[in-house]
């Protein structure tokens, strides 16, 4: 099975080279795409990893490649040296595909969506096969097409998993800096803007949070253990505490204290 968790020891610091950085609240410097961050050491490790937030790089602590980094280095190029533009092109395809695989794999685990398991297994195998392709083949892959194929299945899996809950429709809702009112159990929060939202003590049991923006959201004491499609980057972007309940397989970020 394709790895969906980052293994930086088997990568080559791609997330410190490929993306462009813009001086902002998330990054202390401007950096062009394809240029190494000045904090990247020769061994491909971050020289300020333990103090990224206090040094003005909280955006780095949020990022996660879903294992695409080591896939590019170890599988696509077989550990051999490659030009930055080639690495960037392959990574640009594999990172969103690995995130898609994460969501498909999550849906395969929804007990209420067991009837969809064969279709989800087929989709997972199809996308997984693409991720092992050569750089030349990856260059012609349409991420949008694969996402479009997955969309209806993921939405149906979500609908089945949320059955029997209040299931409020808050898809794409602007909840920036707000405290959502009402019962959030089973809510559709897909692509919702939860930036700085007050979710303290909120019960998000079976709430669909696919694509939701959790930057700065206060999830102290929140129940996220059974939220649907929650990812590590979303958790990293939020502010929680020891009382925040997370799903198995997701880590409590160090900045939560």
Features:
single chain, 257 residues, mainly alpha, Pectate Lyase C-like, 33% helix, Pentapeptide repeat-containing protein, 5peptide_repeat
Description:
The protein folds into 2 domains: 8-19 and 63-162, no CATH class; 165-257, 3 Solenoid (Pectate Lyase C-like). It has 257 residues and is mainly α. It contains 7 helices and no strands. It has helices at 58-62, 68-76, 84-108, 117-131, 135-138, 143-162, 232-237.
Give the C-alpha Rg: 19 Å
Fraction of residues in helix: 25-40%
Mean pLDDT: 96
Largest sheet: none
Counted up, domains total 2
- The helix/strand series, from N terminus to C terminus, equals HHHHHHH
Number of helices: 7
User: Termini distance?
Assistant: 33 Å
Poorly predicted runs are none
